[in-house]
Amino acid sequence: MKITEGYEGAERILPSGAMAELAGLNRDYLDLLIAAPTGESASLPPAVLDGLRRASPLALDAMSACSYSLFLIEARHVTAVDNPAPHGVHDPVAKRYGSGMLDGGAWPSFTMAALSFAWQLCRQNAMSARVMLGFPEETAVALAATDLWRLRSIAARQVLPLQPRWSGNPCFWPDLLRSAFALDPLRLDLARLLGVQLQAADLHASPTGRERRRG
């Protein structure tokens, strides 16, 4: 079995091509963490960051092949303010495309790429976006209703690097890294499964999840 097959089962039930695209974003995210100056990604333990910098390309590919994002898109940056104005009112085209220009290196550009992927996914299947990206339901709805051109200004609000998902969990990142170093398919499956369990916990912790449990 290939060690990069972690998302291929989920691909059968999620939007076509989405898992492969997400794996590519995950891989880019790991590369950006590796290239970040010391202290910029302090939310991961130093031992994990050091391990990422020593990992082989094959090990990084294995870590990236998850059915969920390894990064967080801050939900607070996607709001109803970004939804289309009523009655067909639009900002002048010069304002639309002349504001929110991204600068400051690779992180804003990655945020833009991640948001574009999230926008497409929310429009295809909001539940997939909730599962793969950890979006609350209201965020998925707001992003799906957002005009494509507005994504640049949303991305510009993300002035800091996107944070790693579940960085506070003592096992997820160390287990994923160790299993990728070992290139052991079984250990990789177990490490990815922990992420699936953490996803489920996140969904159940949302207001919608609490309401369902009470029902």
Task: Produce a short descriptive summary.
With 215 residues, the chain is mainly alpha-helical.
Overall helicity: 55-70%
Taken from the alpha-carbon principal axes, the silhouette is globular
Count of individual helical segments: 11
For the sheet with most strands, the description reads:
none
What structural class is derived from the secondary structure elements?
mainly alpha
Given as residue ranges, the uncertain stretches (5+ residues, pLDDT < 50) are 209-215
Total E-strand runs: 0
What sequence of helices (H) and strands (E) makes up the elements?
HHHHHHHHHHH
| Range of strand content | under 5%
Overall pLDDT, averaged?
A: 79
Radius of gyration: 18 Å
Distance between the termini: 42 Å
Describe this structure in words.
The longest helix is centred in the last third of the chain and has 21 residues, at 185-205. It is globular, with a radius of gyration of 18 Å. It contains eleven helices and no strands. With 215 residues, the protein is mostly helical. Helix 1 (18-35) crosses helix 2, helix 1 (18-35) runs antiparallel to helix 5 (106-124) and helix 3 packs across helix 9. It starts with 17 loop residues before the first helix and ends with a helix.
Primary descriptors:
215 residues; mainly alpha; 11 helices; disordered C terminus
